[in-house]
Amino acid sequence: MPISKIVEDADLLVVGGGPAGLGAAIEAGRRGARVLVADEHDRPGGQLFKQIHKFFGSHAHYAGSRGFEIGNRLIIDARDAGVTVLLSTKVLGIFPDHRVSLLTDGQKVVTIKPRALVLATGGGERGASFPGWTLPGVITAGAAQTFCNIHRVLPGKRVVMMGSGNVGLIVAYQLLQAGTDVIALVEAKEEIGGYQVHGAKILRAGVPIYTGHTVKEARGNTHVEEVVIAAVDTACNEIPGTEKSFQADTLCLAVGLTSDQRLATMAGCRLCFSPEFGGTIPWHDKDLETSIPGIFVAGDCAGIEEANTALDEGRIAGIGAACALGRISEAEREAATAEIWDRLNDLRSGSFGIRRRMGKERIMRSGYGQEISCSDCGASGTVTDNTDKVPAESCPDSFLIGDDHPPVGKGKKPVAVFYCDQDIPCNPCISACPVGAITMTPSLTGTPRLDSDLCTGCGRCLSVCPGQAIVLFLEEYGQSLSTLTFVYEYLPLPQKGERVRAVDRFGSVVCNAEVIRVSQTQQQNRSPLVTIAYDRSYAGRVRFIERKREEM
Amino acid sequence: MKRIIHHPILGEMEEKKLVTIFVDGKRIQAREGEPIAAALLSAGIDVFRHTKKGSPRSIFCGIGQCTDCSMIVDGVPNVRTCVTLVADGMIVETQEGVGVANL
Ligand code: SF4
Ligand code: SF4
Ligand code: FES
Fold first, then answer.
1. Above 0.90 for ipTM, yes or no?
2. Which positions in chain B touch A548 (Cβ < 8 Å)?
């Protein structure tokens, strides 16, 4: 799709070809606008191509698909919508009359005057300051992900991860998949910040999580050789005498992101401050239009969130731009965005999302003074100009991870067991079940409930689950054994007949086990299922197997 | 650092043509189409520049945002090696301070 000829009279210029930018371009293109996307990288898709995990959400958000698959899909949709993508193109500046200067291929400066603009410039990762933070070997989690999953170079052999939001947890898992040793994950708060299911995955793999700890220092001469952590009190002050030291060659920082609002600022868009969205962001209304008519924002640029919310915001901005360009009427815009808004509100419900939803309502001011509540957990609050209050009792912030239950058996019948006890916006397990054994009330952020009499033990829900939160348990296998089936996404894959060591949910060895089945089908989309048999007396504790590792 | 040859999700590493780049005079094999920084890291080179005060820097953000990975490439200083792709015969030099043009 890269196109060398510049369409100098585009209706709409979209800056940034990530999920938000492509979403906007697709929607505006489908409504007849001549759309130009400018992206400084050499391929579109933004950060989607390094996201090799399956996404949460619902069917409309391509839940259960991996990030790069969604990226490929969006590129095809953009092409079908007649969108032109200019790669290796940087935006140098925006002038007051919407004139935009582009630098293409580092050579040619072109100035164009689109009638509308969508800024989907994404965000940047935060650093953290401690002695040694500028040493080679201290990198952002995003950099680790880029090098592992795109350039296929291990950023290090022994890694400490700082920060336990979803980025820290997911990247720690992906580093393990790439063959790196993650030796510790450090989190200053008492509980992990990201989803419990992501945390549970890396705990099972044997990565210790030090909550209530921070990085004190990275030491080394010309490269990280040692990482020192220390416990912190509730005010985040280091507690003397609690230092622990790790021999590590890499320290990954996953300490949050900020909106890249530089172009919006240059264009003169009004900015506002929003703690829920990573700090200073361009103010925008319900159509994602900024204080300057004809300039829209979407995705991380409009507030730090996730790829699926970015895509939906992009779609809304694209439809808004199509309306501003006169391609559709106000009524058509309303109708087209209503459904997307419902979806977005679904994603922004539950204990992880409601603050963001309130934050957006506040920014858009349309919701000022409005009572809103979470459809699932019932938490409610009023949208004000100050910090919203969400009652803590009804809407727990996070769970202690590993807080799970032993599998409940059904004798000689295998049944699914769910370790998904948190109100994350996700439901692909439900659509995957051919017999309707799984239900969730009321919507996307409920927790799945199983009717174990209906469950046939087919295992389809296991491989579609982005959280790897489901296992199959067979209590009675022969005289004295039980079996457990789980998703195993590491290499090398164990073989049938192999003797392995079964571990508990913290990765500690429980007992010996034998691999009795390995299933790898197209439908599982690179999430093979491994079944092990082990002595029934350990049935309550076994959760996974010890990872076999390639020699470094 | 090691190349990731086998990967459970991405599959086997694609065969790519190899090109040669010169890093501070040393010949290094790189995979066509990869950024300079990836070639350097896999060749075990991880100090890319020194600041004016002499402290070492390497990649940090990996996507062209922080400029920590800047080097002198074909005589041009301050080239972000994490987003600049290798080309056969390319000359890459460790950068001291803000670097000098060497065209
Ligand atoms: S194992 Fe099969 S039948 Fe049982 S809940 Fe999962 S998908 Fe449904
Ligand atoms: S069990 Fe269902 S709701 Fe929970 S993470 Fe898995 S697919 Fe999503
Ligand atoms: S590592 Fe940040 S610009 Fe290259």
1. yes
2. none
